[in-house]
């Protein structure tokens, strides 16, 4: 049986934690920071853990993650 391919877009955007949760960068920080509040920018630093429903979808694209 051939190996399954990982979606290259998912490989660049998501990481799996040791316990199997999915980490992703915070949304809404690519552009337009002038209209965002300082509180939003501060809270959107770093990474976030995806909800269970979203993680289930992402894990399909990362078969060996």
For the largest sheet, list the strands in their spatial order.
1-2-3
Quaternary status: single chain
Highest CATH level, the class: Few Secondary Structures
Number of domains: 1
Spans with pLDDT under 50 lasting ≥5 residues? none
Q: Biggest sheet, open or closed, and with what strands and sense?
A: 3 strands, antiparallel
CATH architecture: Irregular
Mean pLDDT: 95
Distance between the termini: 19 Å
Kindly estimate the percentage of residues that lie in beta strands according to DSSP.
15-25%
Short description:
With 65 residues, the chain is α+β, with helices and mostly antiparallel strands. The chain contains 3 helices and 3 strands, in the order αββαβα.
Protein topology:
Blueprint: H1 8-13, E1 14-16, E2 22-25, H2 38-43, E3 47-49, H3 52-61
Antiparallel strand pairs: 1-2, 2-3
Throw out a few tags for this protein.
34% helix; 3 helices; three-stranded antiparallel β-sheet; 65 residues; 15% strand; Factor Xa Inhibitor
Describe the structure in your own words.
- By secondary structure, the chain is of the alpha+beta class.
- The chain has a single domain, classed as Factor Xa Inhibitor (Irregular), CATH 4.10.410.
- The protein contains three helices and three strands; from the N terminus they run H-E-E-H-E-H.
- The chain has a three-stranded antiparallel beta sheet with strand order 1-2-3.
- The longest helix has 10 residues.
- The chain starts with 7 loop residues before the first helix and ends with a helix.
């Amino acid at each position: 049986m051939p190996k399954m391919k990982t979606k290259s877009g998912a490989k660049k955007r998501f990481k799996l934690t040791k316990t199997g949760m999915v980490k992703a960068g915070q949304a809404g920080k690519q552009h337009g920071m002038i209209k965002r509040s300082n509180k939003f920018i501060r809270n959107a630093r770093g990474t976030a853990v995806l909800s269970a429903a979203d993680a289930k979808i992402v894990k399909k694209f990362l078969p060996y993650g």
